[in-house]
Design goal:
Elements lengths: L4 H9 L17 E7 L3 H12 L6 E4 L15 E2 L9 H18 L10 E5 L2 H16 L5 E4 H7 L14 E5 L3 E2 L2 H14 L3 E3 L4 E7 L2 E7 L2 E10 L5 H6 L7 E13 L7 E3 L6 E4 L4 E12 L7 H14 L8 E12 L5 E4 L5 E5 L9 H14 L33
Parallel strand pairs: 1-2, 1-11, 2-8, 4-13, 11-18
Antiparallel strand pairs: 3-7, 4-6, 5-6, 9-10, 10-11, 12-15, 12-16, 13-14, 14-15, 17-18
Helix pairs in contact: 2-6, 2-9, 3-9
Bound molecules: flavin-adenine dinucleotide (FAD).
Flavin-adenine dinucleotide binds next to helix 2 and strand 12.
């Protein structure tokens, strides 16, 4: 155990000078077995599972900024495994199980809080669709429970059940869903990977790939060339830009998504609540702020900031289900870049270039996927084959007509 009450007490009395850095700041070596491009949640989780579960330790994570500066530190922290399709649900349920054991596994407090997630329904057909989804979840070993309006009135009396435009008739709840302190996830994985010898190299941007005769042998970076037997890209919102350096064009568009936090309030929202007739989701942080979000801004961009019309649109969604939210003052907001894939589902795959691997297309649901994404990517890198819950997340699925179109809206990133 690295932290104890006694240590905190004595450090407090002696000026906090005895704490050691949680991970090293190494200079890059000339060569590694595996280079992971991107020190977000997925890159760090991949490094952690490679070194801790698959015995591959000569690994570097190259991050252009600082770890946690991307979406892993910008999301609204929701975790759930309430998917429907066989290509998705077992993967997200594996992720949920990994969340449940994560803090014991990497010995770090990530504030995993299974306070539940509730998807509201407003019409009878929507209820039927939720019944179908709930049954698919149960069949994959997840939990799901359908609540009618009376049950919901007891649990969330503050919802606007009488709204004439979008009356709330009930909800699909997943009690094991909830929230996790997002940046602690990056720090916990980083610490666990570093302890096994993984080099986490910050302020090191990958600027190109060393590709010869269809084989990728290393990367060019702002700190020089580095060789590797395997290169694993997972740069989320920068996927198209980075893979273009290897000459690849991806079925991905980058869009901005905003998040909002209100002033601190007394506990009022029991778990995560999502609006079924529009796009709005809300939870309450341990500090009391309402943490909420909605639609992507709807145009292609690599800017990590959003626009006012979407702020209004998101707040309207909140007002539609709980008018009391209109009295809370907005404290802060920010944006992150989403790697929106054409069917709303991700990729964990080899590329046609030998040695070069790709993980991306997480849209705005990749935080909950972090443990399973890292585990399955590490599996692919260590064994050369996809993990059994990630066999459909292939780059060629559009050519084969094997899309994982969870929402059935086709190739429209704004609707996924
Ligand atoms: C506002 C918002 C709310 C969200 N809410 C949720 C939610 O509630 N639940 C959920 O499941 N998901 C949510 N998401 C989505 C989730 O955050 C992402 O899908 C997920 O974090 C992406 O994976 P990552 O953590 O690895 O990405 P990132 O943290 O973005 O990591 C990618 C890293 O790659 C680095 N990089 C880029 N280019 C290079 C380069 N050339 N060289 C080296 N490094 C490079 C970046 O600097 C970055 O640190 C949300 C996202 C946002 C923005």
């Amino acid at each position: 155990m690295r932290y104890s009450a006694l240590k905190i007490f004595t450090e407090g009395l002696t000026g906090n000078k005895g704490w050691k850095p949680v991970w090293r700041e190494p200079e890059p070596k000339k060569e590694y077995d595996v280079i992971i491009v991107g020190g977000g949640g997925h890159g760090l989780a991949t490094a952690y599972y490679l070194s801790n579960k698959f015995g591959v330790k000569n690994v570097a994570v190259l991050e252009k900024g600082w770890i946690g500066s991307g979406n892993v530190g910008r999301n609204t922290t929701i975790i759930r495994s309430n998917y429907m399709l066989p290509g998705n649900e077992p993967f997200y349920e594996l992720s949920m199980k990994l969340w449940e054991g994560l803090e014991q596994d990497f010995n770090y407090n990530a504030m995993v809080s299974q306070r539940g997630i509730l998807n509201l329904y407003h019409t009878d057909p929507q209820r039927d669709a939720y019944v179908r989804r709930g049954n698919a979840m149960l069949m994959a070993g997840a939990d799901a429970v359908l609540l009618d309006q009376d049950q919901l009135r007891e649990e969330c009396p503050f919802l606007d059940f009488d709204n004439a435009r979008f009356p709330i008739k009930g909800g699909l709840a997943q009690r094991r869903g909830g929230t996790v302190r997002h940046d602690a996830v990056a720090w916990g994985y980083a610490r666990g990977a570093d302890a096994k010898g993984v080099d986490i190299i910050q302020n090191c941007e990958v600027t190109g790939f060393d590709i010869e005769n269809g084989v990728c042998r290393g990367v060019e970076t702002s700190k020089g060339s580095i060789k590797a037997k395997k290169i694993a890209v997972c740069v989320a919102g920068s996927s198209s830009r980075v893979m273009a350096k290897a000459g690849m064009r991806l079925p991905i568009e980058s869009h901005v998504l905003q998040a909002f936090v209100s002033e601190g309030l007394k506990p009022v929202i029991p778990g995560v609540i999502t609006f079924g007739a529009g796009h709005f989701y809300v939870s309450q942080s341990d500090k009391g702020g309402l943490v909420f979000g909605g639609d992507i801004d709807g145009y292609n961009t690599y800017a990590q900031r959003g626009n006012l019309p979407v702020v209004e649109d998101v707040c309207e969604g909140g007002m539609a289900i709980m008018p009391m939210i209109g009295r809370a003052r907005l404290l802060r907001s920010w944006g992150g870049i989403m790697d929106m894939s054409m069917d709303g589902s991700p990729f964990i795959d080899k590329t046609h270039i030998e040695g070069l691997h790709f993980n991306g297309g997480w849209c705005y649901g990749g935080f909950k996927a972090t443990p399973a994404s890292g585990y399955c990517y590490a599996h692919l890198l260590a064994k050369g084959e996809p993990h059994e819950v990630a066999t459909e997340m292939r780059l060629d699925r559009f050519e084969r007509g094997a899309m994982i179109d969870e929402k059935g809206v086709g190739s429209q990133p704004n609707l996924h």
